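Fold it.
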Amino acid sequence: MHYTCPYCAAINRLPADKAAQEAQCGRCKKLLFDGKPVELSDTNFNRFLAKNDLPIVVDFWASWCGPCQMMGPIFKQVCGQMQHQLRFAKVNTEQAQATSAQLGIRSIPTLIMFQSGKEIDRLAGALPAPQLTQWIQQALVKAQQNH
């Protein structure tokens, strides 16, 4: 399995049977899974999507958006609970305008699940934790069917 380091963007290869919770980056030695979403930008977005074998849920948000501010702690909480099943990332639409435009982000917050760089499912609007978890689980089923 391939995992992109959230700190230095190095590609790490781990055996499928290795416990991901202790996995460290071979380059910078930081944890690959630290319970926090990875901050992505126009510069590292495509590499992160292409170089992770796990599905990735990306939260597109902006600092001025009230629903985005409500969704932030919920997204982080669910990330901490599900971080070994999939990767979690955030994209600030104000700073990553090219990526946001390329993906047609029209309202925020918008959540998109990717598998092998391809969009699997998309949802606009803030959700409480139970509904976010339910949406992720349904999207994971779609990802497995498409993989």
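The chain has one domain: 34-144.
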